[in-house]
Write a structure and sequence with these properties.
c-terminal domain of poly(a) binding protein, rRNA-binding, RIBOSOMAL_L20_CS, mainly alpha, 75% helix, 0% strand, rod-shaped, rRNA binding, ribonucleoprotein
Length: 114
């Protein structure tokens, strides 16, 4: 009985990986074994960094809120504690946007919680 190798699926798999490696430098874009490793590594990085992006944005929002709060004589932790205590249900993303782009609205929130 002849050996079944399913070359159609094998070629399709290689083509898919090489297509994902398009734009890479040197042999990473056109040599199967090198491209396969590069694409696997890139996929691992992209999975990890989708999680890290959320952390990075939260950190950025906290820095912006802290800077806005300190202009009004409060620290970030004092400000957020008073915001929660007063029942203001604005998340960090919105508060950071207000602190950055609408300082008068942010000042109104600070005056309300003081």
């Amino acid at each position: 009985m002849p050996r079944a190798v399913n070359s159609v699926a094998s070629r399709a798999r290689r083509k898919r990986v090489l297509k994902q490696a398009k734009g890479y430098f040197g042999r990473r874009k056109n040599v199967w074994t090198v491209a396969k490793n590069a694409v696997e590594k890139a996929m691992a990085y992209s999975y990890r960094d989708r999680k890290q992006k959320k952390r990075n944005f939260r950190s950025l929002w906290i820095m912006r809120i802290n800077a806005g709060a300190r202009l009004h004589g409060m620290s970030y932790s004092q400000f957020m504690g008073k915001v929660k205590a007063n029942g203001i249900e604005l998340n960090r993303k919105v508060l950071a946007d207000l602190a950055m782009n609408h300082p008068e609205a942010f000042a109104a929130i600070v005056n309300k919680v003081k």
